[in-house]
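Handout, page 2. Input:
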Amino acid sequence: MSRSIAGPEIERLIQLLARLPGLGPRSARRAALHLIRKKDVLLGPLAEAFARANENVRVCTTCGSVDTSDPCAICCDPNRDPSVIVVVEDVADLWALERAGAVNARYHVLGGTLSALDGRGPEDLNLGKLVERASDTSVAEIILALNATVEGQTTAHYITDVLAGAGVRITRLAYGVPVGGELDYLDEGTLAAAIRQRTPF
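Output:
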């Protein structure tokens, strides 16, 4: 039986931090201690930032991303190509693509993937809005930027079937050898995909 190491407020802070991705109980204790030691420069401002985020952050009703406005800044950006929609599983994937600066399109966040094991079906994803957006005559291409997992590929096939009659071009991200990758360090699945999807040189 573990004993309490601090007052209830500190214990609650540790418990909440332990729920964050990548933080277990031990890391949460270290993070909590660091925050408390830097109370004036970290804990106070962080608490204020959390309160403001909780009050102002909302989900975009157009694409499913998060922002402080609805529609979000990306959906409202007139410099974005409205003919291309990039479909991602999660907001984190959207942010990764934006950091790469590889595409200047609009996005659509599904909020997950289809998974029979987790009991997640089509009704649990943001698919209805995607079908609605794909039927807009200004949309010419849907890029499926889903993870190369069984669930990601199952979801991609399902979306392709659902959008079959929408009259839009459906593409997906290429698979294979990453830039700077060495063949000896790659798994067999990645190498096989790279060979299958080889392009002219």
